[in-house]
UniProtKB/TrEMBL annotation:
Cellular compartment(s): Cell membrane
Family: Belongs to the peptidase M50B family.
Biological source species: Sphingomonas ginsenosidimutans
Name of the protein in question: Site-2 protease family protein
Cofactor: Zn(2+)
CDD domains: S2P-M50_like_1 (cd06158)
One Pfam match: Peptidase_M50
């Protein structure tokens, strides 16, 4: 496979992205089930089958466009449904459900770091365009994507997971108004990630808020991989 071709570029980003997103969403559903709500389970959204979680724009079109443009790749899946009426202590439970997704991504990044360390010698001697090089690229991107998703989803605004955490910390009346912003989630996402940075580069949320902690975590995971690889 040509490592400079579009197929290679798309594959090494899209495969780890789909895995990261699917596990992120399933972890929300598992946390909700543990706290009393089995809605996701009844709707078969605890499946690892990507087709049950794919959002055509967020999981396929946008990541493909970003990968082809060699821009940072991110995306989203269809949110796992949670019925707060079934949750024990709904406000506290929703915070835990929200935190489950980023926590899963950090755990997956740890797995990626360990695998990179274990296969370090094979990766170093891998020929360009080989299967080993393809696997290595996927592992590196798997680590990067999971760290990015964990930090990105903790942006303290609806509809991000961080927004649910903020709602759980606010007084109930304010929390209801805060949650109401979620219906503007997609337009808000476009404004924050595309429009605002284009108009005011200094207001680039990804570069100013997400990139620094994501880079620090990535360096930590890569240090672990180096230590394992000897």
């Amino acid at each position: 496979m040509n490592p400079n071709g579009i197929v290679w570029s798309v594959a090494i980003w899209l495969i780890p992205l789909i895995i990261a997103i699917v596990f992120h969403e399933v972890s929300h559903g598992l946390a909700a089930r543990a706290l009393g709500d089995r809605t996701a389970e009844r709707l078969n959204r605890l499946s690892l089958n990507p087709l049950r979680h794919v959002d055509p724009i967020g999981t396929v079109v946008l990541p493909l466009m970003l990968a082809i443009a060699k821009a940072p790749v991110f995306g989203w899946a269809r949110p796992v449904p949670v019925d707060t009426r079934h949750l024990r202590d709904p406000r506290r439970a929703m915070m835990l459900v929200a935190l489950a997704g980023p926590a899963m991504n950090l755990a997956l990044a740890l797995v990626g770091a360990i695998l990179l360390g274990l296969f370090a010698q094979s990766i170093e001697t891998a020929a360009e365009g080989s299967v080993a090089a393809f696997v290595a690229s996927n592992l590196v991107n798997f680590l990067l994507i999971n760290v990015f998703l964990a930090v990105f989803n903790m942006i303290p605004l609806p509809p991000f997971d961080g927004g649910h955490v903020v709602a759980g910390l606010l007084p109930e009346r304010l929390a209801q108004k805060w949650d109401g912003l979620a219906r503007f989630g997609f337009p808000l996402l476009i404004v924050l990630l595309l429009v605002l940075p284009a108009l005011l580069p200094q207001a680039n949320i990804v570069q100013r808020l997400v990139a620094p902690p994501a880079q620090a975590l990535t360096n930590l995971y890569l240090s672990l991989a180096t230590a394992i690889g000897g």
